[in-house]
Structures are given as structure tokens and as C-alpha cells.
Design a protein that fits this description.
179 residues; Alpha-Beta Plaits; alpha+beta; four-stranded antiparallel beta sheet; 2 domains; 4 strands
Length: 179
């Protein structure tokens, strides 16, 4: 009988020990499953970040290409800006253009060429204020002809007054860019 009791005790001890090991195994298995889920989520995030990074690289490449195109355009445009012209020639062109278009032009003030910086380029700017009198159509032709003579001309200010299309007075401020 002692033998039977010893065997029963050994079996109970074996069952308890195996239960303990099975419980540890199940706990470790659950922990491994949790870690595998975390690893899968982390891998998914890494894949998303990799895809996002590749997309950003493509966008950066396109941006650099666009920037290069803009720089090339700026370089081309700077070459199309004419060189500085003698201010007396500009005043003479203004008076002659007015005469051709039957517009009385009185230069009120001029300022000599001044250096200006636009984006990355250095340019020169000549400004002039004018008083104009003439027909509406003549004023329009005068402005168009001046733009043809000096493509870099800008109108800084224009005020028109007068009773009608036959007698218009205008004050105009212009700028002409050069390099």
C-alpha cells in the first residue's frame, strides 16, 4: 500500500509540475502572441513610412525639377531685359511717341537709373512722371507704342480726368527696367 500511496503522490506531484509548466507555457504563448501582434503593427507602420518616404522623395524630385525650370526661366528672362539706355533717349522716345499719337506729353519729373533687386537678379530702374493730354484713342496708342519700344515698361500710376473722349488729361508714372 505504501507503494501505491507513493505512486499516487508522485503522479499528483507530476500533474502539479506539468500544470505549472503548462501554465507558464500558455502565459509565454500569450505574451508571444501579443509581441507578434505588436511586431505586425510595427511592420505595417514601417511599410507605410517607407511608402510615404518614397512618395516624398518623388515629390522632392519633382520640386527640384520645377525649381530648376524656374531658375532657367529667370535666367532666360534676365537675358531678355534690355541694357540701360541713356535717359535722354528715353525722354526723346516718350515725346516722339506722344507726337505720333497726337498726345501732348509733358515730362514732369525723371529719376536716374536706380539699382533694384528682384528675386535673385539685380536690375536697373528708370522712373518718369508724365502729364498727358489728348484723345482717348491717342492715349491708348501712346501707351501701347511705349510698351512696344520698352517691353519692360511698367505703369506705376495712372489717373485720367476730362470731359470726354476728345479731351482727356492724364497723369502717368512709368518705370523702365534695364540690366
Amino acid at each position: 500500500m505504501r507503494l501505491k500511496i507513493t505512486i499516487v503522490i508522485i503522479i499528483i506531484a507530476a500533474l502539479l509540475a506539468s500544470g505549472y509548466f503548462i501554465r507558464d507555457y500558455l502565459n509565454q504563448s500569450a505574451a508571444a502572441d501579443t509581441l507578434n501582434a505588436q511586431l505586425a503593427a510595427t511592420n505595417l507602420k514601417i511599410q507605410q513610412l517607407t511608402a510615404s518616404s518614397q512618395n516624398m522623395t518623388l515629390v522632392a524630385g519633382k520640386t527640384k525639377a520645377s525649381q530648376a525650370a524656374v531658375q532657367a526661366s529667370i535666367a532666360t528672362e534676365s537675358l531678355s531685359v534690355p541694357t540701360k539706355v541713356n535717359t535722354n533717349i528715353i525722354v526723346r522716345d516718350v515725346l516722339d511717341t506722344g507726337e505720333i499719337n497726337q498726345v501732348t506729353v509733358i515730362p514732369l519729373s525723371t529719376s536716374d537709373w536706380a539699382r533694384v533687386k528682384i528675386l535673385q537678379g539685380d536690375y536697373w530702374l528708370f522712373t518718369m512722371s508724365l502729364s498727358l493730354t489728348g484723345r482717348e484713342q491717342g492715349l491708348v496708342y501712346f501707351i501701347n507704342d511705349m510698351r512696344s519700344l520698352y517691353p519692360t515698361m511698367i505703369i506705376n500710376g495712372l489717373s485720367i480726368s476730362g470731359p470726354g473722349p476728345d479731351a482727356i488729361k492724364a497723369s502717368m508714372s512709368i518705370g523702365i527696367y534695364g540690366r
